[in-house]
Design brief:
By secondary structure, the chain is an alpha+beta fold. The protein folds into 2 domains: about 30-200, Immunoglobulin-like (Sandwich), CATH 2.60.40; about 220-330, no CATH class. The chain contains 6 helices and 19 strands. It has helices at about 5-30, 55-75, 75-100, 245-250, 280-300, 320-330; strands at about 40, 50, 105, 115, 120-125, 135-140, 145-150, 155-160, 165-170, 175-180, 185-190, 195-200, 220, 230-235, 255-260, 265, 270, 300-305, 310-315. Helix 2 runs antiparallel to helix 3 (about 75-100) and helix 5 packs antiparallel against helix 6 (about 320-330). It is elongated, with a radius of gyration of 30 Å. This is DUF58 domain-containing protein. Keywords: Membrane, Transmembrane, Transmembrane helix.
Length: about 350
């Protein structure tokens, strides 16, 4: 009987896992790649590896053919040309090796992003030698970033990495390489900076309106009438008072908007996990609450966040929103919501 598609797929997945495990063991043995390294990471002689590039292999094959022809026909100029080009290739090995030697790497800051966006990992590379370091390249998660450093200078290299899931994302294995000066030799090294980025849940594209919450006077004035200044217009919500609707804008064919005043009380909203529909899964709930937090932040509303394992009191402002998003990003994990 032919193998079932499910069995073939599981066999392929298992094979890939074995290959990943084998590569990790090979990295640890060959490159001494293990847990994240403390900064700064300095490249010593034992950490730099050198191998010919495809162009270097073709160049070596051409030299071999030239050498055989010179021996066959006893060409003195042929010997001289082969040895000259061979000496140049050997010198390029030294230059490629020295282009990486004693480079220093320190992890920079990685700002939080939403799942599906690109996380920007900043790596500070320092050159303490009084010589320029050209034709360098950092590679991580399939993204390659070319750069160069001046004599005694440094560079802040940004490595973009596409995110897929919420939570902490580590930068992991990073490769620094160069093919300077002739492209015949590739010198490289592997490092693991102690760097991570917090990934928030992806906001729901079209979430329902914000819940009304404990305060029923959304859009009402907090103080006495006549003392508030007009602050602008915002999207109309069903709970807004008809007195604050921008009727002139609506009469001209525009959207239904609500007037905002500097003394307007934005109300308080309680974002409660248990108030969400029962048919929503965990990730869908986190996605909706993320969208609501962003909407409340844009409108300047005060809100609280209630999750099965924690509750954040009512507040407003960017710091409060960041704290709530951190809780959502790390929901269901054992990692504390630290910076």
């Amino acid at each position: 009987m032919p193998a079932r598609p499910d069995a073939s797929r599981h066999h392929i997945i298992a094979s890939r896992r074995h290959l990943v495990t084998l590569r990790r063991h090979l990295d640890r043995w060959l490159f001494r790649v293990g847990p994240p390294e403390p900064s700064p990471i300095v490249l010593g002689q034992r950490r730099i590896f050198v191998l010919p590039t495809p162009a270097g292999l073709a160049f070596a094959a051409a030299l071999l053919v030239m050498l055989i022809a010179s021996i066959n026909y006893n060409l003195s100029l042929g010997y001289a040309l082969v040895f000259l080009l061979g000496g140049v290739s050997v010198a390029s090995i030294v230059h490629a090796f020295r282009n990486l030697l004693h480079l220093s790497f320190s992890p920079g800051r990685a700002e939080p992003v939403f799942a599906g966006e690109s996380a920007c990992f900043h790596i500070v590379v320092a050159n303490h030698r009084p010589a320029r370091r050209p034709a360098l390249r950092l590679t991580a998660h399939g993204a390659a970033v070319p750069f160069e450093i001046g004599a005694g200078d440094g560079a802040d290299v940004t490595v973009p990495v596409v995110t897929a899931t919420r939570g902490w994302m580590t930068l992991g294995r990073v490769r620094i390489e160069t093919t300077y000066p002739l492209g015949l030799i590739r010198a490289w090294s592997v490092l693991v900076p102690d760097q991570r980025c917090l990934v928030y849940p992806a906001p729901e594209p079209t979430p329902p309106p914000l819940p009304e919450g404990a305060s029923r006077n959304l859009g009402q004035r907090a103080g006495a009438a006549g003392d508030d200044d007009f602050a602008g217009l915002r999207t109309h919500q069903p709970a807004d008072s008809p007195r604050h609707v921008a009727w002139k804008t609506l009469a001209r064919g525009g959207p239904m908007l609500t007037k905002q005043f500097s003394g307007m009380d934005g109300g308080e909203i309680d974002l409660d996990w248990n108030d969400l529909p029962a048919n929503l899964g965990t990730e869908a709930r986190l996605s909706r609450m993320t969208a609501w937090i962003m909407a409340a932040e844009r409108r300047g509303l005060a809100f609280s966040l209630t999750l099965p394992d924690t509750r954040i009191a009512t507040g407003r402002g960017p710091q409060h929103s960041t704290s709530c998003l951190q809780r959502l990003a790390l929901f269901g994990t054992d990692v504390a919501a630290d910076a």
